[in-house]
Design goal:
Length: 247
């Protein structure tokens, strides 16, 4: 199974100055089974940036393109609506407003903001079959609205865990914009609960963006007897999971 991993395209002022058509041609030449786009598709979460990013992503010929949201994409109160309009309209896993949460701006005041949907996180799960194997793609929104530091809501992880527990799959992959292991000027502040989540569901591969650095990290938890790989991405990379154990 070939996975093409792209990230941080930053349509808008931070987008590269190269030729997008040539880039698309190159990306399509890999004939990937899955394309994972780990966020920051825009620079400031503006509608024209979302539209440009959406147009670029529709140029990918792979039928399994999975995009998630990044901190740059959450810089305006309509970010979550724009993401669903231009990038991916997948059903989002939400929380009732009555649930006690600690993530800032997780719910917006509809009367003030006039947004249609007031839950600002983009969390979802998708299941796809590649070569007879069921791949569960788990997207956890690690971004906080209006903030370049990351934060994960525990109540969201609990709800997503319930969905995972109901699912049957061969290989779970976690997609999240912030690195859960590396450090950064703008880090995921409470990464430990996401690491716990990875270990709880025995996730072996974690795809992330944000740092603009290409790395491969492997961690072993001797107490829990669990190993996982973290695959941060700068712009483009390829991963081969031929037997679920190599990358
Ligand atoms: Fe980022």
């Amino acid at each position: 199974m070939n996975i093409l991993h792209i990230s941080d395209l930053h349509f808008g002022p931070r987008h590269w100055e190269g030729d997008d058509l040539i880039l698309l041609e190159k990306l399509n030449s890999y004939q990937a089974d899955i394309v994972i786009n780990t966020g920051d598709s825009t620079t400031d979460g503006l509608e024209d940036e979302y539209a440009a990013a959406g147009q670029f992503l529709t140029g990918l010929t792979c039928k399994n393109v999975i995009s998630i949201i990044g901190n740059h994409d959450k810089r305006n109160m309509r970010s979550h609506e724009l993401f669903q309009k231009y990038i991916d309209s997948t059903d989002i896993i939400t929380l009732p407003e009555t649930v006690k949460t600690s993530k800032k701006h997780l719910f917006l005041n509809r009367e003030i903001t006039k947004v249609r949907e007031n839950f600002t996180d983009i969390n979802f799960i998708k299941s796809i079959v590649i070569d007879g194997k069921s791949i569960l793609l788990i997207n956890i929104d690690s971004n906080e609205l209006y903030n370049d530091n990351g934060f994960v809501e525990k109540a969201v992880l609990d709800v997503v865990s319930e969905v995972i527990n109901q699912a049957t799959y061969d290989l779970p992959l976690l997609l999240t914009h912030y690195s859960i292991l590396g450090t950064d000027d703008c880090p995921l502040k409470n990464s430990s609960i996401l690491i716990d989540f990875v270990q709880k569901h025995k996730i072996e591969y974690v795809f992330c963006g944000h740092t603009h650095e290409l790395e491969l990290m492997r961690t072993n938890d001797l107490y829990l007897d669990h190993t996982f790989f973290l695959l941060p991405q700068n712009t483009v990379g390829l991963v081969n999971l031929s037997n679920g154990k190599t990358c």
